[in-house]
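User: Predict the complex.
Assistant: Input components as received:
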Amino acid sequence: MAAVQARDDGAGQYQPKGKGLALETAAAWVLALLWIAPLLYAVWAAFHPPEFSSRFEPLAPLTLRNFARAWDAAPFARYFLNTFALVTLVLASQLVLCTLAAFAFARYEFPGSGIVFALVLAQLMIMPDVLLVENYRTMSHLGLVDSIPAIALPYVASAFGIFLLRQTFKQVPRELDDAARVEGASGLQTLLKVYVPLGKPVYLAYGLVSVSYHWNNFLWPLIITSSVESRPLTVGLQVFSSSDQGIDWSVICAATLMTSGPLLLGFLLFQRQFVQSFMRAGVK
Amino acid sequence: MIDRRMRGWLHAWLLLLPAMALLALFTHWPAVATLVDSFYSTPRARRPSVFVGPDNYHQMLADPIFWQALTNNLWFALGTIPTSIALALLMAMWVNDRFPGRTFVRMAFFTPTVLPMIAVANIWLFFYTPQIGLLEQVRGAFGARAHNWLGSQDTALAAVTVVAGWKDAGFFMIFYLAALQAIPPNLAEAATLEGASRWHFFRRVQFPLLMPTTLFVLVNAVINAFRMVDHIFVLTRGGPDNATTLLLFHIYMVGFSFWDTGYAAALTVVLLVSLALLALIQYGVLERRIHYR
């Protein structure tokens, strides 16, 4: 991965020059503007009074009233709290469970490890996103319907996380492991003192991917929740915008920006880490 | 000696236990249960579930909405997969070069990936709205006739396909960008010495070296094409007249609107089997044509 970070210097010998560069720059800019046009539009509508939501006058007055109206019209504070709780619960449990399982696959030899690993990878194809009906039934047997743990549980044992960490742990030099054990560290202590610290960049990468996935997840939370107390932002936003608010675009745009705001802000601040994390998560 | 080995096994299994228990409960068991349930009737208030053999599948064959959902999903996949991959490659080639504003351009391409689909769908809904929507205003300025993009059977599916392609392309770009930057620079030096044009270098060197990435992206794109339904809830709710009903959306409607869980299980089996088949085809056929570094 070091090579990826170091070589951020363009296409080398085939870096376009002169007319070619001008043409490419123009094309890239046009596509980029096209790509964020929906977002730019939402920003325009959210920060201007409703009568300007589809009229673009450069001198239109700015306002924050749309945000205030959206905030008052639905329990967004509660939705934010739920999403924070959900994302934290999912990530924390994923990190613990995936670390333990990945360590077993990377550093232990035991009968059936191949089959068990195949069973883990099966989840990459049979995603919780598809097994809606049965998982709903399981949750109602467990008495968990309409709760935040119910949204989180199917995603906690993440095949992607186990796979990613297993690859990372396998690259840790054996000598470090042996040295720790010679000093009398147990298996778990070695994991915590040697493997976890060395895996930090991968943990960051996985964390960012997981947080943005679960912040944005919609279908399963829609099915399993039915009250304000457990609904995450995405479901709350959908309930809000499909109700009679449906006509007022300025308020909808404000609510939309509000719900994606923290993630978008985090992305803008940590753009480099975000992009590199997604790269790292995919390349492995 | 044997004792120590057994201790090692025990430790490994204990480490695996929590993750495997949850995987069994929420992936393996439901997958098997879905298959079993697809052969049983839906339990109703007075009638418990009974074995009905292939009845649910017969119902599926006779269900015009299923066939429409399947066809829609194929068009949706055909519309999103090649365009988002081609766009992703083009974007990655561009932001791999140095030019003024590269950081902004890269950010612009990637932004849709971090935004919730359900939120951006709201913005696109307004973009497509008749009369006051942005698209109609632009078209109106050129004197085009008014058109209801999401309300018309002819254009609704295309409209939701565009949104999906827009969201996916920037995500896939990242993987191409990572792969492009991992290509050793001496290959480009050698190619210039040979006098190869940029297109030739792309066609003969970069593109073949990107094939593993293309396979990875392709698998993800196929999965996404069958999994991405969030925007349907906002933009069309499957309408007009089922013109934008995708398979997973149909499963949702059957399972959680009509509560016909037996039939929903049969539909889920079809979706899972199609995904597995597609994965096998992709790995089986494409894997052999790829040169790994």
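Chain A touches chain B through 102 residues (CB under 8 Å).
Let me know if you want any component modeled separately.
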